[in-house]
Amino acid sequence: MDKTQDLMHQIEKARRSEEAADQFVAAYMPFIKAETAKFIHRSPQPGNDDELSVAMFAFYETLKRYDASKGAFFVLASRNIRNRLIDYARAEKRHKGMVSLDAQEENEDDLPLKDRLSDGKDEIRNRLDRGAVRQEILHFREVLRSFGLSLQDVADHCPRQKRTLSACHRILAFARQTPDIFRQLQETGKLPAARIMEGAAVDRKLLERHRSYIIAMLLAYTNGFDMIRDHLRQTDPAKGGASL
């Protein structure tokens, strides 16, 4: 099978399977990052540059809608990524132009708006961020569905106690040091309980009670969900422990 045929086989498989689609996107993240870098003129930083998430979704969109009669896949993917990034940049410019952050208003002690925003946050940027987060959550929901899970399942089985949450993050830390854990989960859809219990020092009761949350946590670290991973880092209670 030549490279073109192999690529077409991967694309067809990815269009039928969400798991395969996520693997395809992960395999070509260097291409996605390179296309993003062309647009922003520097290497994109996951979790910091919204443009990388926009490019990732554009690539995923191209994959799901690809028609070979329209041209070569990577040519179309490159074009779609650029178009989406242009749309994003224009939207950002429009939103930033709505209100000048240096504008002063009456009865506000002559302070510019940027100094009055609560907690120093940029509310305009937050509105844009929510759109990207929403897209990532929708994609994550589809990945969960391929494992027979829903976002509600994850919420229902999320640890409530700090000690239990710490144990779940120990599982994640162990899995990141043991790639076979991720591979077995992807191939079988099940957690390798015995290995996790021994390697992360947790009991079976915890695995069974919080299975949905643990699987979701592991999937978030294998499929390019940058914003969801950032959220998991923030919820890790192990201060000074293993870096997540």
Question: Short summary of the structure?
Answer:
With 244 residues, this protein is mainly α.
How is this structure best described in words?
This protein has 244 residues and is mostly helical. The protein is built from 13 helices and no strands. The chain has helices spanning 3-16, 18-27, 29-40, 50-65, 73-98, 123-146, 151-156, 162-177, 179-188, 193-200, 204-209, 211-220, 226-235. Helix 4 crosses helix 5 (73-98).
Helix fraction, binned, reads 55-70%
Structural class: mainly alpha
Low-confidence stretches: 98-128, 239-244
Number of helices: 13
Order of helices and strands: HHHHHHHHHHHHH
Mean pLDDT: 76
Largest sheet: none
**Measured on Cα atoms, how large is the radius of gyration?**
21 Å
Sequence-ordered SSE layout with sheet pairings:
Layout: H1 3-16, H2 18-27, H3 29-40, H4 50-65, H5 73-98, H6 123-146, H7 151-156, H8 162-177, H9 179-188, H10 193-200, H11 204-209, H12 211-220, H13 226-235
Characteristics:
244 residues, mainly alpha, 13 helices, 69% helix, globular
